[in-house]
Structures are given as C-alpha cells and as structure tokens.
Amino acid sequence: MATRADIEEWLAACTTGDRRAFGELYSATSAKLFGICLRVLDNRAEAEEVLHDVYVKIWHNAGRYQANGLSPMTWLITIARNAAVDRLRKRRSPRASMEQAEARPDPAPGPEAQVIAASEGERLSACFDELDEGHAQAVRGAYLDGETYADLATRFDVPLNTMRTWLRRSLLKLKECLSR
Amino acid sequence: MSDELPDRDADKALAGEYALGLLPSEEAAAFEQRLVTEPELRALYAEWCEDLAALTDRIDPVAPPPRLQGQVEGALFGAPGGTSGGMGWIGVLLGGLAAAALALGLIFGADLLQRGPQAPSDPAYVAEVAAEDGSLVVAAAYDADAGELFVDRREGGPREGRALELWLIAGEDAPVSLGVLPGDAQAALAVPQDLRPQLEGGVLAISDEPPGGSPTGAPTGDVLAVGPITNT
Questions:
Q1: Angle at CA of residue A156, ends A153 and A160, nearest 5°
Q2: B138, B181 contact by CB (below 8 A)
C-alpha cells in the first residue's frame, strides 16, 4: 500500500520526467481511480478512455500538485472524478435536451444509498446522517453521478432556485458538522 | 446568488458548489478568477475537495486492463521499444547519444546547482511570473525559513543596456521593490521582514528599468510580466 509520502515522491519525480516513477504511481493508484471512473460512468469502455486521459493529465500537471494544498490522493481522485463527470455530462446533454419530458429515475434511495453508511468515510457519513435524506442524496448525486442543478430540480420536483437554496444550506450544514 | 447568507458562509457554500461542479459556467469562471487572488477561497475549495473525496472511500478499486498502462505510456512517451523493427541499430545509436547527453546534463546540472543558489525543497509560496506572449518567464519560490525568494529566469532577459526589477504588489498597495534580477538566471533575493506577510495572496511583477533599478522606488518602465503568488 503506497503511503502519502510515496505518492508525493512519485509526483515530484514525474515533474523531472521520471518515467519509472510514473509507472509506480500508475501501479499504485490506477485501480482506485478506475473504480471511481467506473462508478461514475457505469460503462467500461468509457471508463478506460477517461482513465487514459486522467493519467496523461497527471503526468503533464504533476508540477501543479504542490501548489494546490490538497493531499496527493485527493488531488488524483478529484482529477479522476471531474474527468468522469465531464464525460458523463457530455454523454447526457444531447439526450437531456431532446427528452426533457422523459420520466426521471425514482428518487427513492436505491440499495446502494442504503449501504453507504456502512463503508463511507465515517466522519462524512455521520454528517450526511444529520442532513435530510433527500439533501444528502442530492450532494451525493452531484458528486458521484454528476447531477446538475437542473437534474436535481427535476428529480426532486422543485424549482431550480429552490433546489439551489436547499443544496447550499445542506453544504453549510455539512461543513458545520465536519468542522465540529 | 445570495440567500441572505453572511459572506463567509456564502463563500463556503460557493466553494462547495464549485467543487461539485454545480456552478453555471459564468459563475464558475468568476469563481476561478477569485481563486487566483484569494487564498482563503482556495483553502475553502481545498477543504471541500478533501471532504468530498471521502465519498469515494466506499468505491472498490478495480484493476484496469493491463494493456491500458502501455497505451498511456505510449501516448506520453512514444511507442514502446522493440516493436519498431527496421530501425533497430539507429534506435540504439540515438538512444546511446541521448543517454550520453543526459549524463552530461546531469553532471553539469549538478555542478551548477552546487555552486549557485538552490531552489527551496519545500517552498511556502510559488509564482510563475510570465509575459503574456511567454517571452519572459521567471519561476519564483519562497523559502520561509531563510526569508529568501529563489528566482529562476527560464525565458528571456533584460533589454539591451537595461535591467529587470521584481516587484511585490499586495492588495491595493503600491508595488514594493524586491530587487533587481541579477545577470545569472538563478538567484536568491532576501525578502525584508516587513514584506514577508504580504507575500500571501500577493502578485509578483517584473518591469523594465535602467541599470541598477528604478531611481524613484516605483516602477518607471514597461511592466513585462506578472504572476500571482500561490500557496504550496
């Protein structure tokens, strides 16, 4: 299991063109990032393409890692999650505009949401529990399913501005709980 | 959008919305603009990234297909060796030359590093001070322990018979000189005690000045390059 120091060392070495360090970084982190791409995209071929682009990005931007104040794993996860969500939204957008009348998925929590509490980061999970269930789902949906305010407003059947006010308040509640 | 939240809370929520990718594109662009100059906002955004990344804790790792690593490395470093057939010996020769050049570079590089000022290994702040067209690029890294700003001029130099002067601009304050960049590409400039706290969130700029620097204490020539100072 690679430590934070290992990952930082590999990233630093990447900035000097060290391919071997890049190989080590890839071996140690690609399964985690691929899992995330698969979870967001639910499509193997797309997840592979995104993972490819993610590591190209990591190599080219390794020098920017130091400047952003994130832990190295968070930096990698954020790049992978954002790339996967971008891809997902590109895939969705033509359909979303053409089929706006299409029924949205049932907002009731699926089996996945129900087991979340068991395995998620404990602190975060406890704080999600303090939110209304719908609000917690909205934050998760935005992060892991790339849902936009428009998606969420439709899903929860509220006006877009209401959705945004809700979500902003939920974020503050979450933050307040996390900083306790 | 304001829903009667105090400023600090509004920014907290805004940073979360940005981290989730929920902001409409104009608002996201405005937020990114603020990130450049507002360290507090950067800290809020970083916190959200850390917190939200925990949502992936429960996602099980899945090994990608083994060929993918080769494809990534092929895209980054060119085709893997051994499959190019026809130009085998040329490849070997070129490889040898490249290795020799690299070895020389390492020797000279190491030698230079030992004699000249050294980049801090753990800088508190960094900045890339660059001209819009890339004709002048200076990387800066601040060593908080030594109170020194290490500068590395990577592109360009002073105009004929002129000098380059480095300035710190903190908030709305007038630029304060950090000194004239010496002839060597790499140098360490001592940052006066009273200026050190102003580095955070500040901006570095380089102006064209007469030899020895501005006679007035304020930039007199063209401003050639600027770059925001960022936390590491």
A1: 20
A2: yes
Looking at chain B, list the stretches that DSSP marks H as alpha helix, in order from N- to C-terminal side: 7-20, 25-37, 39-53, 67-77, 88-115
Give the residue carrying structure tokens 């609000």: A135
A69 token code pair: 């104040």
Q: Which residues pair with B230 in a beta bridge?
A: B126
Question: Per the confidence metrics, is the pTM higher than 0.80?
Answer: no
Which residue ranges form the domains of chain A, and what is each CATH number? 4-98 (1.10.1740.10), 111-178 (1.10.10.10)
Instruction: Give the list of residues 6+ apart from residue B77 with CB closer than 8 angstroms, or none.
Output: A19
Structure tokens at B188: 């360490």
Work out the end-to-end distance of chain A between its first and last CA atoms, rounded to an integer number of angstroms: 30
* Region for residue B106 given its phi and psi (left: phi exceeds 0; alpha: psi -120 to 50; beta: otherwise): alpha
| Cα distance between residue B121 and residue A125, in whole Å | 37
Look up the ipTM and state it. 0.84
Residue B6 or residue B153, greater confidence: B153
- Tell me if residue B121 falls in helix, strand or coil: coil
**From B3, B12, B62, residue closest to A31, measured CB to CB:** B62
Token pair recorded at residue A4: 């934070």
How many inter-chain contacts (A to B, CB under 8 Å) are there?
A: 139
Confidence tier at B27 by pLDDT (50, 70, 90) = very high
Least CB–CB distance from A19: residue in B46, B54, B77: B77
| Contact across the interface for B20 and A38, Cβ inside 8 Å | no
- From chain A, pick out residues whose CB is under 8 angstroms from the CB of B12: 171-172, 175
Supply B138's token pair. Answer: 């200076």
d(CA A46, CA A42): 8
CB atoms within 10 A of CB A116: 20
